[in-house]
Amino acid sequence: MPPFRPGDRLQHLYDRDLGPGEVLTVDSRRMTVRFPRSGQELVFSVADHPFAPLQLPQGAGPRGWHAVENHGAVERLARLDTDPTGAWSNRWDGFRLGALREANGLGSHLGGRIELFPHQLHVAEQACARDPVRWLLADEVGLGKTVEACLVLNRLLRTGRAERVLVVAPASLTVQWLGELYRKFHQTFALLDGARRKDVRRDFGPGFNPFDAHPHSVVALEDLVAAPELAAQALDAAPDLLVVDEAHHLGRRPGHPGNAAYRALAPLCTTSRHVLLLTATPLEADAHGFFRLLELLRPDVFPCWDTFRADLDSCTPIYPCASATRRNDIGGLPPRVPCPVLLPPCPAQERALDRELERSAANPLQRRRRAAGVERLLAVPSGRDDPRLGWLAEQARAWEEAGEKGLVFVHRRDALEVVKRELEGATRRRVAVFHDDMSPAARDLEVARFADAAGPTLMIATETGGEGRNFAFCRGVVLFDLPWNPVLVEQRIGRLDRISRRRPVEIHYFVPAAGFGTQVARLYEALGIFRDPLGGLDHALGHVAEGIVAALDTSPPQLDSAQVVAETTALRRQITQSLYTHLHRDRYRAELGEAILTRVPQELDALTSRVVLEACRQYGFDMEPKEGTACWYLEFGAEATVEHLPGVAEGSRWLGTFDRAEAVARETLDYFSAGHPLVEAVLLELADGHRGQVGLLDVPGAGEEGLGLLALVQQGGKVLPVLLDLGGNPRPEWHSAVLREPPPWRTADLGAWGLGEGAEARATWSARVRDLLHPLRMEGDVLAAAGLRLLP
């Protein structure tokens, strides 16, 4: 007679991922079983079947067999179908890790390959606390607005609050955004440049929306402006989250519909649920421009400029949708060190300047040409005898010997070619370059080569390298020329003067022996540009360039430095006093830092390492420790004992570290942290699989004797341990002994517990387990269960 009949409920003894099954048909040789969880109907041999009858929880009702999936651990423990103690320990550690990495709300913010700065965590928490998140990030240059935006983006994706994300950035920064998201936050985005859009048309047809094909994408602001149909497609795709970098490019003066960038992005800001705008312009420097960005975020709160202006004048706090952290709020940043290089006379350049200054300035066009000509002569080397080239060659040798890097800025592309050629000839070393005519991918590759310890000592960059890039690893910056726009000088210095820097910023600039170039250098010294950040003055310094050009009208040219310095000092004082900073509600202050960082679990990296490495060992992965702090090579190889892991393909391999500091220092390594595919796969397997679900444990060193049960019960988003003795009495006092660190458990033998022997003892055990643990379903799902024997 067959052991089962149609309608019987079964549990597969070996493939628990199938879930409970129901017998559909049975004859003398075969039976067909349906598994609702997987949707499969499978045929098995009656004579050699792998099933046990499914024991339903008491009071489960006629359809309660589906609920047994939540009580699988209880039934397995009742049948003494236990896992190795190492698997149980790994599962317990996995639950602990899941709780620990929530970090009192910091959660996914801790998964990034970033140094943890409290002001960035504060801003990200402030923004994510809002729903929807519509936030203006207006921190000073160098304080990490991009990281803050990525922290928010990562949180919204990880928590399911956003699925479709569009990042809009200047073309020079698009590839950098891809790298930041992937290397630091384990997020893969697509760059929707012309080539990728062409691929979408080829693969999906000419009318297919590229933003639907790539719901996580980065696109250049210039492309949206130049191609209205692309902007319309982005609007149709309706992103859940829109991120706009360098949002101060979106301009709209009073009574005007806005510039092309504003008109392209404004509809997207309206339709996207979540919006992040990033700007380097503080409220004090451009109140109207700041208002326009706030208006895009919350038109209901900021209906008109006049009202906003009146609120500022009356010191009314700004609605909480913006953050503007200043360097003064943080403190402790390394100083800028001006390193002037006094040049000897250069007769050839002086003669050329004299000829250029003789041009007539009778009409504005001729005046502009003369100014451009003078600036070019000061920027482009006058020949091999230009003293700047000799100094730079010697400095390159000194930096190479010390294992340091230097970033050289030139204003013009022709100057870059001359400097590169002469330096490579003088030093016999390759010099890296970064300029507008390189593709974004080529720029990123060149930066990676330059950053490598074995790469070039020097990189020469045009102003393209001065926007958004991070060269904090360089020893110093060399200003081969001094643009007449001080904002460009600040952008150059800002590539090194970053929040992550731990040593002074050396700023090398050239001071000619005489002439107009000397006056420009001395003016910038008087303005303090080489000593103090502009701190948001960028868009209020047009008078400096105007003053320099106006000086060319005199013969000989004479800069009115006193007037320019006085005007700039007044503006700087207004910014420094932060007239409106106090109007930003809940802004970051230095005294908040310690409390924020104390919420970061110190053992997070170590516990992640323990959970993942032990899981990989049990999976049969290829594992090899590598040089460096907590560095490992891990491979899902052919000898693995698991067939699949969620989101990880067989054959996947990683070289990475579990240590945050090591990951920040060595970006070529994976960072095994929250969000990494392997880490998430291990935790999902522990949460949803059956490995380590049931244990039978001796607990030595408990200080007393006792027999009991441990259940891990999920209540809401938490997993709570429940300890009972075999009489059904709660025993919370056992907690410190049973769940202490490191885990004290060892594999137990039920026969040594004094419960009797044979089938009767096993039946008594099974009944006791079911009677005590099944009622816990009223409190939550029982994810794991173990029998315990406490020993003194």
Structural notes for this entry:
The protein is 38% helix and 17% strand. By secondary structure, the protein is α/β, with parallel strands linked by helices. The protein has a 7-stranded parallel β-sheet with strand order 8-9-7-10-11-6-12, with helices on both faces. The protein has a 6-stranded parallel β-sheet with strand order 13-18-17-14-16-15, sandwiched between helices. A 5-stranded antiparallel β-sheet has the order 4-3-2-1-5, with no helix packed on it. A hairpin with a 3-residue loop joins strand 2 and strand 3. It starts with 8 loop residues before the first strand and ends with a strand. The model is unreliable at 57-64 (pLDDT under 50).
Compact summary:
By secondary structure, the chain is of the alpha/beta class.
Lay out the secondary structure:
Layout: E1 9-12, E2 20-26, E3 30-35, E4 40-45, E5 51-53, H1 72-78, H2 85-100, H3 118-128, E6 134-137, H4 145-158, E7 165-169, H5 174-185, E8 190-191, H6 194-204, H7 210-213, E9 216-220, H8 221-226, H9 228-237, E10 241-244, H10 260-271, E11 274-278, H11 287-297, H12 305-313, E12 322-323, H13 327-330, E13 336-342, H14 347-357, H15 364-379, H16 387-402, E14 406-409, H17 413-427, E15 432-434, H18 440-451, E16 458-461, E17 476-479, H19 486-494, E18 505-511, H20 516-527, H21 542-551, H22 561-576, H23 593-597, H24 604-619, E19 622-626, E20 631-635, E21 653-657, H25 660-665, E22 670-671, H26 677-688, E23 694-699, E24 706-715, E25 718-725, H27 735-738, E26 746-747, H28 758-773, E27 781-790
Parallel strand pairs: 6-11, 6-12, 7-9, 7-10, 8-9, 10-11, 13-18, 14-16, 14-17, 15-16, 17-18, 21-22, 23-27
Antiparallel strand pairs: 1-2, 1-5, 2-3, 3-4, 19-20, 20-21, 23-26, 24-25, 24-27
